[in-house]
Specification:
The structure is a single chain. The protein has 78 residues and is mainly alpha-helical. Helices cover 82% and strands 0% of the residues. The radius of gyration is 22 Å and the shape is elongated.
Length: 78
């Protein structure tokens, strides 16, 4: 006695894809935002530079340098 398969509606598929996309976006953005907030709190010179000039590139540069240092240290362990 097989029950007939019911295809999910288009709305349900769209909703599940939207939720998966949003989850992937949150998982990829959260570490960068956290690292940026940590850098602003731990390095007041960068925060002052951003506040004075209104330019976010010092924070971006500091984030890239921090991630580069972490990757270099990780690779040095192997």
């Amino acid at each position: 006695m097989d029950r007939p398969r019911i295809r999910p509606s288009r709305t349900r598929r769209w909703t599940s894809r939207a939720i998966l996309t949003l989850g992937a976006l949150v998982l990829s953005v959260t570490p960068v935002v956290s690292l940026g907030a940590w850098l602003v709190m731990s390095d007041p010179a960068v925060a002052a530079d951003v506040a004075a000039e209104g330019d976010l590139w010092p924070i971006v540069r500091a984030i890239v340098e921090t991630i580069g240092d972490a990757v270099r240290d990780l690779l040095a362990m192997f």
